[in-house]
Amino acid sequence: MNFERPNIRAMEGYSYGEQPSDAEVVKLNTNELPFPPSPKVAEVLQNFAVASLRRYPPALANDFRDAAANLHNLDRDNIIATRGGDELLRLLFTTFTDPGDVVAMTDPTYSLYPVLAKIQDVTVTQFPMDDDYRPLENFAQQANQAGAKMTFLVNPHAPSGSLLTADQIAQFADQLDSLLLVDEAYVDFVSPEHEYNCLELVNERDDIIFLRTMSKGYGLAGLRFGYGIAHTNIIAPMLTKTRDSYNLDAIGQAVATAALLDQEYAQSCWQKVREQRQRLCAALRHRQFKVAPSEANFLLATVPESGPDANTYYLKLKRRNVLVRFFNVGGLDNKLRISIGSAAENDTLLACLDEIRAGHTD
Ligand SMILES: *Cc1c(COP(=O)(O)O)cnc(C)c1O
């Protein structure tokens, strides 16, 4: 017997980056922060009133929402807290699309979007990007012509790290007929000199929503905490209708709030990542890898044409206990996506790359 809905039967699940339990592995494959979360997180956990777990958690995570609203100069009503950014994406589908609807996105993009679309039985249309991983100028017109109900942009883009300016985001929002999700999972790593900030748009328009996550910039991928930022017309239906009534546990709320409030620690981590990004980018280019300019905490590196192919690099790095991401799909199959590690992890990566380039056989 198969009781699955036909679209569920036909689909494949999300393909995860490997999550080894071995602490020895230099893990540069899923864009986690190479540093522990804020020391305030340990404090919260040590002092957590275990007896309070008897009770249901605050339903709306208002302490977290207030902290986020304060950080972004917005109101609590502009914020929804979710179980990772991924829950926000799922809520967007269940709240704003019907089965049979069309959604638009770039190619490549975050590979979870098409999976969530299939669960909702929504059709995905993808539009090519230019050589610098920017949407084509007619991206919005194409999405409109396809009848998109929702459009997805990742900024900085994954898996390349390219950055659209706030003006370009506003322009796409102007041109699009649909709701626009701007996935800012990696925004914390954007260099301050870009002065990138789109959030004021939520005061002006109710057809745009921003995704944020504690997984990348705050070193809390294991916690599962993210949030959405939008006009209350977009936030309210998810907050009051489609969200699980207690979607976030009490421990997670306390931890995420403490981490978000410790901006000084977070910013120092982001700065270290930026410094390592610059260094790793230069080191890879020195080794004839072509590296797309990145404002995220990863680099998309095309392997040199002379020498091993990307899959071989991936496998040989893995044998040396260094994990990077290899996407076996057209357009990306000559590239590696490498998360920015600590200085020591990046040293190890570069030493292993040199061994592999020098033609060691294993
Ligand atoms: C990591 C990531 C997210 C959110 O991840 P969570 O761990 O669920 O918060 C969203 N979009 C992109 C592009 C990501 O890389």
How would you describe this protein?
The termini are far apart. The mean pLDDT is 96. The protein has 13 helices and twelve strands. The longest helix is centred in the C-terminal third of the chain and has 24 residues, at 263-286. Helix 2 packs antiparallel against helix 10 (250-261), helix 3 (62-72) packs parallel to helix 10 (250-261) and helix 4 packs across helix 5 (112-119). Strand 9 (290-291) and strand 10 (298-302) form a beta hairpin. With 362 residues, the protein is α/β, with parallel strands linked by helices. The chain has helices at 6-10, 39-47, 62-72, 84-96, 112-119, 139-145, 166-175, 201-204, 232-242, 250-261, 263-286, 310-319, 343-357; strands at residues 26-27, 79-82, 102-107, 123-128, 148-154, 179-183, 208-213, 226-230, 290-291, 298-302, 322-323, 335-339. It has a seven-stranded mixed beta sheet, sandwiched between helices. Pyridoxal-5'-phosphate is lined by residues 84-86, 110, 154, 158, 183, 185, 211, 213, 215-216, 221, 226.
